[in-house]
Amino acid sequence: MRVSHSPATLFAAFDAPDLIAHAGLVPTIRLAERCGLPALVAEKVKLTGAANGAGTAADAKALSIVGGMIAGADSIEDLDVLRHGGLSRLFGGVRAPSTLGTFLRAFTWGHVRQLESVMRAFTCTLAAHTGLVPKRDEVVFVDIDSKVKQVYGPAKQGASFGYTKQRGLHFQIVTVKTSTCAPVIVATRLRKGSAGSGKGAASLLREALATVRAMGVTARIVVRADSAFFSHKVVAVCRAAGAAFSLAVAVTKTVREAIAGIAADAWTPIKYAAAIWDAEEERWVSDAEIAEVPFTAFTSKKKVFHTTARLIVRRVKRLNAKSVPAGQAELFGVWRHHVIFTDSPFVLVQAESMHREHAVIEQVFADLEDSALAHLPSGKFTANAAWLTLAALAYNLTRAAGHLASVFHARARTGTIRRHLINVPARIATGARRLTLHLPRHWRWQDDFTDLWTATGQRMVT
């Protein structure tokens, strides 16, 4: 690839009032309107008494932030991406970044909770409108996890040092997915940086499970989490909601004793890294094996909290076989154990592999940090909490746009959806009392864009 013209004959000028860089915002924001997001914000978010008129037109301001995030904005200043070229001809009520910053800083914790209520209600409507979370699947997985988002300003409220040894703010998210769909965020919460990973998890999970049921999901729910969320409170929430749990467990003394009681012939090889299928014996030859044993957890708590379920143990023989010098193999195998506590009704191999898929939530973290959560942009804690909730809204909307566009985009990363379907350049033309967006010829994903465009009630030029 090379430039086909010399510098003397190639010029540039920022003088086209009818060009836009994000044509995909039109069907995506239209989808938000059809699912009632502006009305929900206007109804539920009441910033009464806020100075400088920060509480007025909360719906327009929230949609401006969400729209900017969908286009790729990761800071308050970046929200100015919505005020270029001909976008003002396509969207009304777009606010300046300074106005949006004032709006976010006006939030109290109560207002953040109002915004979280908006997100839960909107996600239910979005799922019903687009089929984002299939109801036909037999099992629905609810994953909860947390992450410390590193920040650099010592004056940022709530920022402190936690287990990562980095100054940050600690947020939790809960997602819902099935075997045929990508994760959708159903709950978020921001905490100070030094908060434990599992702090407040039970109440957040209770809200998330109620949201999943409000979506109309009647399938079996399995809650998955790592060992930081292993607690009697989390188990109690799961059982009260009629959900199964699959929680990783730290290998403590009592757990080691339970593992020691597993018979030597009870271990089953599984498909794992570098596993080989033995067709003659019809089994996997693997460095990983699994077994299960009954176990009663939380015996240090009141008797009402004692919980008996299955302890599923995966043992891995060695970390890296290539690091063992030739002729110096170990005399006795040393195993590393990974333990799950679950009341899942599924058979051993299926239950263990299902839990390992909990790692999909790390992809959600990566998607968020590749977009709106690249920063927590305000110095005020509640403004950042509101930003987190709006980032989850933008994530779900982007995911819904991909779902309407194609099978590929339904499971693609949100960054891929932005590049293919949102950040599409266009020229606005006026004629016959209508606006037409002229999009690039031979756009690789024009059929997928067309499906998204028409799915939101708009027409293409034929």
In short:
The protein has 462 residues and is α+β, with helices and mostly antiparallel strands. The protein contains 15 helices and 15 strands.
Describe the structure.
The protein has 462 residues and is α+β, with helices and mostly antiparallel strands. The protein is 36% helix and 20% strand. It has helices at 25-34, 37-44, 58-71, 87-90, 97-105, 109-130, 201-214, 232-240, 253-260, 348-356, 361-369, 381-405, 407-411, 414-422, 446-455, and strands spanning 19-20, 139-150, 160-161, 167-177, 184-192, 220-225, 244-249, 268-269, 276-278, 283-285, 288-297, 307-316, 336-342, 426-431, 434-438. The strands form 3 sheets. Strands 2, 3, 4, 5, 6, 7, 8, 11, 12 and 13 form a 10-stranded mixed sheet that branches. Strand 14 and strand 15 (434-438) form a beta hairpin. Helix 6 packs parallel to helix 12.
Features:
single chain, 462 residues, alpha+beta, 10-stranded mixed sheet, 3-stranded antiparallel sheet, 36% helix, globular
What is the beta-strand fraction? 15-25%
Helix tally equals 15
- Tell me, briefly, the overall form: globular
H/E element string?
EHHHHHHEEEEHEHEHEEEEEEHHHHHEEH
Using the CA coordinates, give the radius of gyration.
Answer: 25 Å
Describe the oligomeric state of these chains in a short phrase.
single chain
Give the rounded overall mean pLDDT. Answer: 91
Unreliable parts: none
User: What is the terminal-to-terminal distance?
Assistant: 33 Å
